[in-house]
Design a protein that fits this description.
elongated; disordered N terminus; Rossmann fold; alpha/beta; 29% helix
Length: 173
Amino acid sequence: MRWFLLLALVFGGCASKSYLLPAPKDVRPLASIQKRIGVTVEVSEYLLLGKVAYKRGNTLYFDEEVELAEDSRSFLQKSLIEYLKKSLQDPYVYAFPWEVEQMPECVVRLEVKDMYVDEEEREGVAHVELMINDHLENLTIKTPWRGDRISTMYGLYEAVLERVATEVSRSCR
């Protein structure tokens, strides 16, 4: 009996899969901006759990079989900085708190209110608040179903990064 419990504990903990989300590969070049850009990212508390959230009806669930190797805030902050550097051809993109001699000329604040896979609509959905300098925009970003939750969520991350980069390109000239 003890061996059975021990085996159940050992193999029960191995049922989930851990995913390290890769940085987006296809970065669409936008207008070159040679300004210091400061970036800060905040997310809703449930996005710090490192789980893929999905929605059925009006209820939000977490995929217990999938664990992200890092929380959404950390991933988005690092990825957004790299995405902006590549898409804007600008090496001067920094995370808050600013550890540079001069303050940023353009401040980007991304707050992710919701980010989940809607299983009934078969799409990824993100509700974000984007503030660039003093201009605030509430955005809803959607992506199509990609065959499973983790692929759909990855596509949603890419769509959020691309949309933010587009808005920064327009606003920080």
